[in-house]
Amino acid sequence: MDLVKQENNQADLKIDLTELIKNGVMTYRDSWYGTLLYLGEVDGYPIVTFTADWDLDVPFSKPSKQYLTMIMKGLNLTLELKKEEIVDYISSKPGLIDHYNKNEIEELIK
After folding, report:
1. What is the pLDDT of residue 106?
2. How many CB atoms lie within 10 A of CB 58?
3. Which end of the chain offers a freer environment for a tag, N or C, measured as fewer CB atoms within 10 Å?
């Protein structure tokens, strides 16, 4: 909840987690990150992410190397993907296709 609050300009959050889990989605604010999505459970803990409640029609910008490194570490730690799988996955995503090639992504994993 703290991260959602940070991404929403410290907005006051009143979220009923039981209701979110029951419905699978809850929009509490009309903003880029005002919609919560329940993704399921892992080891008894609810997994929730947040996003906009509308289709985004904005151009992708180049993500920083630090951001990509963090995402790739997460893929390795949580999904236990191998280096080659991570490179293939990351290099196929919009926002990366025009900004990084596979060699540059491989360098970030090292």
Report:
1. 93
2. 8
3. C
Residue 19 and residue 77: Cα distance in Å, rounded? 30
**What are φ and ψ of residue 51, in 5° steps?**
-160, -175
Helix 65-79 with 83-91: angle, nearest 10 deg: 130
Q: pTM (2 decimals)?
A: 0.60
Sheet with 45-51: list strands edge to edge: 25-27, 35-42, 45-51
Q: How far apart are CA 74 and CA 45, in angstroms?
A: 17
Q: What is the pLDDT of residues 71-105, one digit of tens each?
A: 999 888 888 889 999 999 999 988 888 899 999 99
DSSP string, 20-63: HHHHSEEE-SSSTT-EEEEEEEETTEEEEEEE-SS-------PP
Q: Are 27 and 35 in contact (CB under 8 A)?
A: yes
User: For residue 92, what are the contacts with CB-CB under 8 A and spacing of at least 6?
Assistant: none
